[in-house]
């Protein structure tokens, strides 16, 4: 059964250390995804595409730098794509999702943890599921190596990126023949 992401009730966010002392957070505003799951909502596969240019950290100058060739290089790599390769249940309402993330023109495996609720029917008769996923990656593994050394040691931008996704999906409606 196919489930489609409800973008008005979904967020894709990340956090990266700045100057080694604080975390800068951001999000992507444009994305799409489909989920294959059982009727009860047990996830079987996920495919997602993010518009890399839709990055938003709340600071226009920083967002422009992140879109540049120093980071995402959105002119040459406009999309970030995830395709799952496996889903392993990990207790009640939890799963470990493995898959391939294509970012900055490089595809590498990633793993994240999914916590999901049960399927329910909304007031309009649609079947919905909500879930939260989290994980982390090293940005250098995808060629995002720009940095600046600090006078007293350390670097401007941390290597570890923590990400969270709060997702709501809606069961796809069957089309009458």
Task: Note down, in words, how this protein is organized.
The chain is mainly beta and 177 residues long. The protein has a single domain, classed as Lipid/polyisoprenoid-binding, YceI-like (Lipocalin). The protein is 5% helix and 55% strand. An 8-stranded antiparallel barrel has the order 1-4-5-7-8-9-11-12.
Topology record:
Layout: E1 2-5, E2 11-18, E3 22-28, E4 31-37, E5 43-51, E6 55-56, H1 60-67, E7 79-89, E8 94-103, E9 106-116, E10 120-121, E11 127-138, E12 157-171
Antiparallel strand pairs: 1-4, 1-12, 2-3, 2-12, 3-6, 4-5, 5-7, 7-8, 8-9, 9-11, 10-11, 11-12
Task: Give me a quick take on this structure.
The protein has 177 residues and is mostly beta strands.
List keywords for this structure.
elongated; eight-stranded antiparallel β-barrel; 177 residues; 12 strands; mainly beta
Class by SSE composition: mainly beta
CATH topology: Lipocalin
Count of spatially separate domains: 1
Please give the order of strands in the largest beta sheet.
1-4-5-7-8-9-11-12
Please write the CATH class name. Answer: Mainly Beta
What kind of oligomer do you see? single chain
**How many E-type strands?**
12
Supply the number of helical segments: 1
CATH superfamily: Lipid/polyisoprenoid-binding, YceI-like
């Amino acid at each position: 059964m196919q489930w489609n992401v409800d973008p008005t009730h979904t967020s894709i966010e990340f956090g990266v250390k700045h100057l080694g002392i604080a975390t800068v957070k951001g999000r992507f505003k444009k994305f799409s995804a489909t989920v294959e799951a059982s009727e009860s909502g047990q996830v079987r596969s996920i495919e997602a595409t993010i518009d890399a240019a839709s990055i938003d950290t709340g600071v226009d100058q920083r967002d422009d730098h992140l879109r540049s060739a120093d980071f995402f290089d959105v002119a040459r790599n406009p999309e970030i794509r995830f395709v799952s390769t496996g889903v392993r249940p990990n207790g009640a309402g939890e799963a470990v999702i493995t898959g391939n993330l294509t970012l900055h023109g490089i595809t590498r495996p990633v793993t994240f943890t999914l916590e999901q609720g049960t399927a329910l029917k909304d007031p309009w008769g649609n079947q919905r599921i909500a879930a939260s996923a989290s994980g982390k990656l090293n940005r250098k593994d995808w060629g995002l190596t720009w940095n600046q050394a600090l006078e007293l040691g350390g670097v401007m931008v941390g290597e570890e990126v923590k990400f969270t996704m709060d997702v709501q999906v809606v069961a796809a409606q069957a089309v009458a023949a």
